[in-house]
Amino acid sequence: DGRQGQLYDRDGERADGKAFLERSSEDRHQFRFIVSPEDGTALGDLKATTRQLMKQMEQDVGTPLDWVAVDHHNTGHPHSHVIVRGRGADGADLVIAPDYLMKGLRGRAQQVVTETLGPRRDMDIANAVRREVGQDRFTGLDRELSNLAQGGEVAVVGASGSADRFRQALHRQRMRHLEGLHLAEKTGQATWRLKLGWEKALQAMGRRGDIIRSLSAGLSPEHASVGVRFLEERGADRAPFSGVVLSQGPVDELRDTRFLIVEDVKGSAWYVPARNLGPGEMPTKGAVVEVGDMRAEARKADHVIAGIAERSGGLYSDAVHLAEDPVSSSAYRLAYKRRLEALRRSGIADRRADGVWEIPHDYLERAAAFEATKGDVSVRVRSWMALESQVNARALTWLDGVDAAGDGELSERVVAARRARLAFLQQEGLLGPDAQELSNAARVQLRSEELDRAGAREAGRSGRAQVTAGDGQAFEGKFERTMDLAQGRMALVGNEKAFALVPWRHDLERYRGQSLILEQRAKGTGWTLQPGRARGISR
User: Fold this and answer.
1) Residue range(s) occupied by CATH 3.30.300 in the chain
2) CATH of 7-117, one of 3.30.70, 1.10.10, 1.20.1070, 3.30.300
3) Would you say residue 536 has pLDDT above 50?
4) Which Pfam families does the record match to this protein (predicted)?
């Protein structure tokens, strides 16, 4: 009905997600899966089905399970997400056989649904297969055709019974549909030749269809009518572009990868994959970002993994990473394990049964080659402050850098915001002689004023004194949270009596919740890890 999903567990309708996170923070792994019954709409409330499945799973693995779930009705197929802790009731690591996870659990789920809805009739099964004929995605019928193909040639002949004749009729109809998609060509009365790459083309069509269907749930009403385009439609024009984030949503809910809808300065809306963004980097709605092609090179995370493996005999694990970087949080290290999981599926890294990864000697070269095949994009946040909020902000904003001479190339939204911004700056007496842009002195003034206001708000909220870089003394505190200002994202580092604001960067995320020492350097504020201090409750 449009509301947010609500976590639940075996006992109640509202599970405490924060408590589940806290007791899972030191788990070596967890299990995630999606239960998506084909006739989920007939089940209505999915909670009873999920609880029955989890009860059966506990019996199968021989231990009570600590789990939470949430039901989603945001697609045409109602489904439940389930997360199971990686520890059993005895506190030891929970190990589940891969065959059970891949096959056994699915079989149990089918049994639970069948007990509720009754067995599927032959007519139901036939209708489900018949619906696959006209789908623009890779289907079960395509899998059958792939098995029939000999050297790319498919011959639909030789039916011996009514069931075979029905199946062959579906195969012929499917081949005619693929012919219409230019993925096959007819070579005889009942033979076709499949085009090279037809399977990947169908898989891409399916992903695109899923994306389009999910956009209606992700876009707000004022943007629902915007025609969303895909980056491959840009053709040879691959120059980076700036734009405003209209919305974001999940691409793969199991692996927690997301997409952005970005409206560029010319008014076009683009679907932008955001799977390469690390912890703390996901822009919020209204943020201004720059989108461009990502260079085909190994990521920063790959260099960290390779360095740890080089010093540990070609091995990487969460425990080894923690030993080398004691202040890194479990959430931060999780990003590295996700990266390795992606590379494992491409045969670049191997994971042993004990959770230790075997890293090849040419890991960085192979990781760079992997990136080259993806055609990924980079997303850089240019302003964490929403466009509309920038108009009357007494701060240095992204709008202050937009070239007014390019009004003919800008969307009405950006042009209107730019004009309103200029009117505000003129009213405040901050424009230069040409009344079109800020002077250098005004830019410095606005940056300083915004920092002062942010510091004053935090001082009033927490009752602590602000420490600035100009004080010339080292400052010790914990990385508490981030603050999004017009001039950029800032990290708030504080202790019981004082706090400091320093420019945020991705590398800082590893120290979130940890203690740091900030010290003044010749070229600005630098930070170093607090050395050798006990971290008791007071820290």
Assistant:
1) 7-117
2) 3.30.300
3) no
4) DUF3363 (PF11843)
